[in-house]
Design a protein that fits this description.
heterodimer; A: 300 residues; mainly alpha; 71% helix; 0% strand; flat; B: 305 residues; 13 helices
């Protein structure tokens, strides 16, 4: 029995398209599935915040300050996760906070991707002096203490949500550039790129239709990891008072506002932090999972 | 080897110049430093006077080289807020940050390297998976939140460690864990993958066939080669930690350079901000330079070639 090949399985494998295989493998990857579920939940929170939030996230009620969450003594179902120091409903603020995290994460990862991919592909494809200059830029970028410069720039030019996205986008392109450069260096030597060159295809055409499609997998992986990075940094900057401005509900800012209550109402810190942690963990799990599925050779 | 050293030095120098110029223009070009010193209620005459006094009326490029030249001699100007020379404050604050950084990188190495080795010796075993979980969790934990959780457990619920300050070694325990834990995942992954590669190599097979014991192979032959890239990574991580100290020092109220930077940023104290950014980035440049040189020296092909 054991030596009998499973013909049905082989036939299926032959019939399956590469896309289907990747989809199947993804569904079997526990980390990827769990991460995707958590991200979907947060995305639904962000998209449908006005319908999901039980209260106005900005409405203050000074008579109902520091109401604990429902599972604690003194908690009620009116405010499932309690209220903060201004009596604002914590659950509603958490739900609206998802918008900020996801917005900052996706937008700054996108800006950084445009810069990083352009630089990385140019360095890898053209080599020589172009590569020399871009490698220098990457080295210089790594020497910049990100959080300090982000704080300083936010303090000087004013901190707003748009500013924050721009700062993070302009700072976090290094990993894209490094990965894209390395991949392009390898791709450049491959037969199909050489063939396109010999056929007389123009450089932009080669870059867009021969190189770029083959970079997509690693781009997606780097983008997820950088998105997580940006979300953590936004929270840290808001925590330090130079990110998202109050009264906007950023999870990092909420932790900072709850900080004074660490002795008595530590849930004010635990809850927003836990959401932040769960979201970043989920994005990292998806990133790692995608790497296992799309580029298993780069796992180590 | 000599050519490599010269090239590497030149690169470090160029990166240093570039980064310092970038941060100088970014911070100085922004606001009017004279108004920052005098406050919004200053008269036009006062502003003009201060501009001339501090030399803000000169072209920016002249100001940059002037600033750089004096910074190289250890003169960073006067702090707008503290009204003392910046280098005096920094000399007070920097040792604490370096001490914290060294403790944190040691903590990370002591934990991550053995875990990485153990994971590499038995890939996909329970310990490998546990190490993986630890590193995935470490990457996702916001450091300020982790710090506050540790405080609420070890200083509030079970008060065995102090909440804030930097007076005794016990004040450094929690900050070290927070800062070090963050650097752990990368070091562990690199140790693991390095060990897996090395253990698979020909010379390890030769050592095995010579009848050497497992321990001799792992520590004497394999680790020695696998650890080389880890040194570079640890150097880079130390540089990142200096920046990370901004968050950790502000949570634990440690009077270090990171907290100084944060306070200066909030006060608009540009000379101090500028000095800390310069020192942190130069430390990174210097450490990666040293690590690269050490790597080259450890690699016989480069040393002799």
């Amino acid at each position: 029995m054991r030596n009998q090949p499973d013909y049905k399985q082989i036939e299926e494998a032959i019939a399956a398209s590469p896309r289907l295989i990747i989809l199947r493998q993804s569904c079997r990857h526990a980390g990827l599935v769990i991460g995707a579920i958590v991200i979907s939940v947060v995305a639904v929170m962000a998209l449908f915040a006005p319908w999901l939030a039980p209260h106005d996230p900005f409405a203050q009620n000074l008579d109902a300050r520091f109401v604990p969450p429902f599972w604690m003594e003194g908690g009620s179902f009116t405010h499932l996760l309690g209220t903060d120091h201004l009596g604002r409903d914590y659950l509603s603020r958490i739900i609206y906070g998802a918008r900020i995290s996801l917005l900052v994460g996706t937008s700054s990862a996108l800006i950084a991707a445009v810069i990083g991919v352009t630089l990385g592909v140019a360095a890898g494809y053209f080599g020589g002096r172009v590569d020399f200059v871009i490698t220098f830029l990457i080295t210089a970028r790594l020497a910049v203490p990100v959080i300090l410069v982000a704080l300083a720039v936010a303090a000087i030019y004013g901190s707003s949500l748009e500013m924050l996205i721009l700062i993070l986008g302009l700072l976090l392109w290094d990993r894209y550039a490094i990965v894209m450069r390395a991949s392009t260096l390898q791709l450049r030597e491959l037969e199909f790129v050489q063939a396109a060159k010999i056929q007389g295809c123009s450089v932009p055409w080669i870059l867009v239709s021969e190189i770029m499609p083959n970079l997509l997998n690693s781009l997606i992986i780097v983008a997820t990891l950088e998105m997580a990075h940006a979300i953590i940094l936004e929270a840290a900057l808001s925590f330090l008072g130079l990110g998202v401005r109050p009264p906007l509900p950023s999870w990092g800012l909420m932790v900072s506002e709850g900080r004074d209550q660490i002795l008595f109402d530590s849930w004010l810190i635990t809850i927003p932090g836990a959401f932040l942690f769960a979201l970043v963990l989920a994005i990292n799990l998806v990133g790692d999972g995608l790497r296992d599925v799309l580029a298993p050779e780069s796992r180590n | 080897m000599l050519a490599y050293i010269i090239k590497r030095f030149a690169l470090a120098l160029a990166v240093g110049l570039f980064v310092s110029a970038l941060s100088f223009f970014l911070l100085y070009a922004a606001g009017d430093p004279a108004t920052a010193i005098l406050g919004p209620s200053a008269t036009q005459v006062d502003i003009e006077n201060v501009r001339r006094m501090y030399g803000f009326d000169r072209p920016v490029i002249v100001q940059y080289f002037d600033w750089l030249w004096r910074a190289l001699q250890g003169n960073f100007g006067w702090s707008y807020y503290l009204r003392v020379p910046v280098e005096v404050v920094i000399a007070q604050r920097l040792p604490t940050t370096f001490l914290l950084g060294i403790c944190a990188i040691m903590f990370a190495l002591v934990l991550a390297v053995p875990l990485g080795i153990a994971a590499a010796l038995k890939p996909n075993s329970l310990i490998d998976r546990a190490a993986l979980v630890l590193s995935v969790v470490g990457q996702a934990m916001p450091s300020f939140w982790f710090a506050l959780i540790l405080i609420s457990v070890f200083s509030v619920a079970y008060p065995i460690l102090p909440v804030s300050g930097s007076a005794t070694w016990r004040h450094f325990v929690l900050p070290t864990i927070v800062l070090g834990y963050y650097a752990m995942p990368a070091i562990m992954r690199l140790t693991r993958s390095g060990m897996i590669d090395v253990l698979d190599s020909d010379y390890i097979r030769t050592a095995r066939s010579k009848g050497l014991t497992g321990r001799q192979i792992v520590f004497k032959h394999a680790l020695r080669n696998a650890i080389v890239p880890v040194i570079s990574l640890a150097a880079a991580q130390f540089g990142f930690m200096l920046a990370g100290s901004v968050v950790v020092e502000s949570v634990f109220a440690i009077q270090g350079a990171g907290r100084l930077a944060w306070e200066s940023i909030l006060r608009g104290d540009i000379p101090t901000m500028q000095a800390v950014i310069l020192i942190f980035s130069m430390t990174y440049v210097l450490l990666t330079l040293l690590a690269d040189l050490l790597n080259a020296w450890l690699n016989p092909r480069m040393r002799l070639g």
